[in-house]
Amino acid sequence: MIVKNVRCDWVFLAETNQHGGYSMCLMLPNSHPQLKEVTAAIDAAKAKGISSGKFSEANTKSANFKNPLHDGTAEHASDERPAHYAGHMYVNANQKGSQPGLVGPDLQPLMDDSCLYSGAFYNVEVNFYPFDTKSKGIGCGLNNAMFVKHGDRLDGRTNAEEAFAGLAAEGDLQ
């Protein structure tokens, strides 16, 4: 499925994350028009996991069952990111193999890494799948991403022009 116009955090699309894969966290406001569609896709993956024998209906109700959809308000209330996640549900999408496809709004490969940061908006193609490895649950595969628009950075970083504007205005460049 393609989740449209979603703000993302922890964006690792040009280089791998600490686990050796590519990933991004899709932050869906509680009012996002596709939230029910995402929930339905997760439910379909659960049904597939049950019918394929990867896990049982009882497993899906266990506290140990891994559900990819998280409540940002509840889960990040006590850390440094509550403002970013409040009022949002989020999904961590991952790709362990090859790099996900990445294009700009013109559908051309994205060569400008200034569009790859936490806070930017993307259209993201994901797939939900059942797993039974060390634990049981539903995973979220990251297939492709399309940069949509810039947003306020979530990592607190500014661009170089903003960082050094005061020095240039003061004439104190050395």
Features:
174 residues, alpha+beta, OB fold (Dihydrolipoamide Acetyltransferase, E2P), 7-stranded mixed sheet, 5 helices, 34% strand, elongated
Topology:
Blueprint lengths: L1 E11 L9 E8 L5 H17 L5 H4 L8 E3 H4 L6 H4 L2 E8 L5 E3 L17 E12 L3 E14 L10 H11 L4
Parallel strand pairs: 5-7
Antiparallel strand pairs: 1-2, 1-6, 2-4, 3-4, 6-7
Can you tell me the CATH class? Mainly Beta
CATH T-level fold name: OB fold (Dihydrolipoamide Acetyltransferase, E2P)
**Would you count the extended β strands for me?**
7
Strand line-up of the largest beta sheet? 3-4-2-1-6-7-5
Strand content: 25-35%
Helix content: 10-25%
CATH superfamily: Nucleic acid-binding proteins
Give the count of helical stretches: 5
Distance between the termini: 52 Å
**Can you give the mean pLDDT?**
91
- Low-confidence segments, given as residue ranges, are none
Radius of gyration: 19 Å
Structural class: alpha+beta
Query: How would a textbook summarize the main sheet?
Result: 7 strands, mixed
| Overall outline | elongated
